[in-house]
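Pasting as-is:
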Amino acid sequence: MRGVRFLALVGAFAGTIGTAVAVAATVGLSSAKLTTYTAASTVALGTCSLSGSSADAYVDQSNAGTNFGAAASLHVRTQNGNKNKRTFVKHDLASCGIPASARVTTATLKLYLATAPAATRTYDLARVSAAWGEGTITWTNQPAVGAVSTSTATGTTSGVTLQWNVTSDVQAWVSGTANNGFRIADSSEGQNPAREGQFDSREGATPSQRPNLLVSYYP
């Protein structure tokens, strides 16, 4: 009986080997060696600095029908009695040549605060929802805006540059949303005493102090 069991086990083992060989033949295994190559790749970070806006202006509630698109400064003010001021600024991204599929890593709007308010204020930035013209925008016809994207504190020191992180807004524009620029306004309008800040516009005398948009992206 032991001999019979041994022969049975040998037969089963041989059958298993035969099956393995058959499977190997079916999938086409060979003795050729496989070589794997690994190489590092780097995608260059693109940058674009737009020094000087393509359009900017401020609007004045107390002069609701007047256009200030040619002014050398951009004003933001809070004051009771319908005397608030707001600033609009736009940069043309087309000259950057950023692909529509690009991922924007950082985008920063910079404005030079030539004259700071007497007490620190918070300036809200919101994306503009409709087209506007530098030579025609007034308080009366100013376009609507979306939700506040970001804010920054002014401080009380003149001659400094304020910055807003606008990465999500620029990403939206790159991806196909219409670029109508930004509106900057005091976070608490209609207050007394009046507080006003003034930025250099694109008509300002010093190029380095004009509105700047700096964008970094992966194409």
